[in-house]
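Quick one, tokens below:
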């Protein structure tokens, strides 16, 4: 999926001659820490952060004087995973979107990316969450899906976290369309999958949101 549908034009960009005071006020109003700076002819000049503004010589300084070279941006057809990696790598709250000729299109907010991941992981669907671990050499996605779905249980979403060390285990988080996972846990244990945690319907949204945040952190390379 690309970020085309997530582009917002409701959040106004900054102009080069906007003052630090104005920029900080706008960031506070719309609750972000980064805003794009766009020229009068609609070209992206860069992105400025709250920290840069706070280090300015005074409130009347212009934002163009604090812009850094090589502005960060993405194009409308960029995949949501690649945008997420950029957000994590630079700790951004917004990402400017521009065409190949650097014409500004809009921006994508980190919050909207998070909501997209929540939809992709079916957080609003009824069902239980199952967190399991397995040795890397025993992991087979095809076998995992077959083991679960051949027992009249549907996998609504799946997220995989690779091990941080050479000898670590792969962790898989499953969202299922059932609330009782006892039988599935037993079957998976037989195939070498160790259950780390299981959450019923009354806790799934909060826990899966935590899983989304973990997954986004793991996307950083």
């Amino acid at each position: 999926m690309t970020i085309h549908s997530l582009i917002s034009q409701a959040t106004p960009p900054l102009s080069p001659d906007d003052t630090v005071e104005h920029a900080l006020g706008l960031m506070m109003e719309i609750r972000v820490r980064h805003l794009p700076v766009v020229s009068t002819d609609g070209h992206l000049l860069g992105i400025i952060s709250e920290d840069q503004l706070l280090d300015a010589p005074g409130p009347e300084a212009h934002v163009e004087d604090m812009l850094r070279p090589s502005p960060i941006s993405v194009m409308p057809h960029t995949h949501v995973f690649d945008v997420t990696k950029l957000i994590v790598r630079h700790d951004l709250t917004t990402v400017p979107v521009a065409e190949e000729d650097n014409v500004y299109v809009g921006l994508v907010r980190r919050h909207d990316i998070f909501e997209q991941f929540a939809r992709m992981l079916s957080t609003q669907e009824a069902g239980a969450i199952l967190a399991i671990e397995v040795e890397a050499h025993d992991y087979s996605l095809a076998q995992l899906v077959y083991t679960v779905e051949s027992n009249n249980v549907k996998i609504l979403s799946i997220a995989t976290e690779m091990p941080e060390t050479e000898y670590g285990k792969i962790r898989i988080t499953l969202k299922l369309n059932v609330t009782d996972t006892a039988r599935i846990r037993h079957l998976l244990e037989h195939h070498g999958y160790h259950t780390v945690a299981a959450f019923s319907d009354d806790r799934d949204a909060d826990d899966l949101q935590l899983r989304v945040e973990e997954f986004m952190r793991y996307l950083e390379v």
